[in-house]
Structure formats: structure tokens, C-alpha cells
Amino acid sequence: MDARLNYFANPAAGKVIKSLMSVGKAVKELPLPAATQELVALRVSQINGCAACIDMHTKDAAAAGETSVRLNLVAAWREATVFTEAERAALELAEQGTRTADAADGVSDEVWAYAAEHYDEEQLTALVVMVSLMNMVNRLNIITRQPAGSYEPGQFHH
């Protein structure tokens, strides 16, 4: 399957994608644990059905040492015993921040307070931006039908 847009051959798309990658790099530099960032990116991508991002984030997480058990259980994290309370709080915030159409209030006060018990303001900022950025990138990839399966770990992290 070919993508509708080649982000790197199209100058307009390339300019925008470079900017998005810069935002992603800035988020990765914030003090939110790398494992949490990958779990959140993966969960948001699963909810949105973005195969290209699921491919990327499972491979990057595995290359960084994440276990296959945890990666395989992200989709059913509520019933899994392999995630910390902090990771569970991040995953809940990611889900509510992604499923805004399903809940009139978006992220509930309870979910925000639970996340704030585990993360400071800088880390909460990273979580909010990560969830928002992943939702945007998921939509870009879905609309343009970016194929999945050939991603190599670290491919876009220049």
C-alpha cells in the first residue's frame, strides 16, 4: 500500500512534519519517564487505530528495553498487573484525553487529580502535550494512509 502523501518528498508536508518532530523531541526531553511516554503514545495510537504509530512505538519501546508482556498488555492495561500506579494514571489520562468525543467533560477532575498524585507540573505538561501530539500525528497518518510494518527503531530520531 502506498501512502497518499509522502511526507519527505512533498516540501509542504516535509516542513510541517519537521516541525512536529521538533515538538516530539522537546517532549522527550521533559522529565517524564521514557517508558511512560512510549506506553502513552502506544495507547493513544491503539485507540485511534493508527497502524504506523503502533508499529513505531512498539518497536521503539522494545528497542529501549520494554518487555513484550507490557507492550502486549497496554490495550488491556486496566486488567494487567504489570503497570505501576503512575503508569496507570498516565494511561487513564491518555485515554480520556483521546476519547474526548465520548465524554462531554473530556478529562475528569478525578483522573487529573490521580495523575497529579504521581506527576509534577512539568511531567503533567509532557503528558498533555504527548497525548495531544499523538492524536494529531495519528490523524495525519490515518488520513494519508501511511503504511505500517517497515519502521526501524529510531528511524525518525535524528
Please write out the topology.
Blueprint: H1 11-28, H2 34-48, H3 51-63, H4 68-73, H5 85-98, H6 109-118, H7 121-143
Polypeptide structure, described:
63% of the residues lie in helices and 0% in strands. The chain is an all-alpha fold and 158 residues long. It has one domain: AhpD-like, CATH 1.20.1290.10. Helix 2 (34-48) runs antiparallel to helix 3. The model has no long low-confidence stretch (mean pLDDT 92).
Describe this structure in a few short sentences.
The chain is mostly helical and 158 residues long. 63% of the residues lie in helices and 0% in strands.
Task: Describe this protein with a few key phrases.
158 residues; mainly alpha; AhpD-like; 7 helices; 63% helix; globular
For this structure, what is the CATH homologous superfamily? AhpD-like
How many β-strand stretches? 0
Oligomer: single chain
First CA to last CA: what distance? 26 Å
User: What's the CATH class, please?
Assistant: Mainly Alpha
CATH topology: AhpD-like
CATH architecture: Up-down Bundle
H/E element order? HHHHHHH
Helix amount, in percent?
55-70%
Largest sheet: none
Query: Please, how many domains?
Result: 1
Average predicted confidence as pLDDT: 92
**Which consecutive residue ranges, at least 5 long each, have pLDDT under 50?**
none
* Strand residue percentage: under 5%
Task: Give me the number of helical elements.
Answer: 7
Secondary-structure-based class equals mainly alpha
| Shape, per Cα inertia axes | globular
- Which value, in Å, is the CA radius of gyration? 15 Å
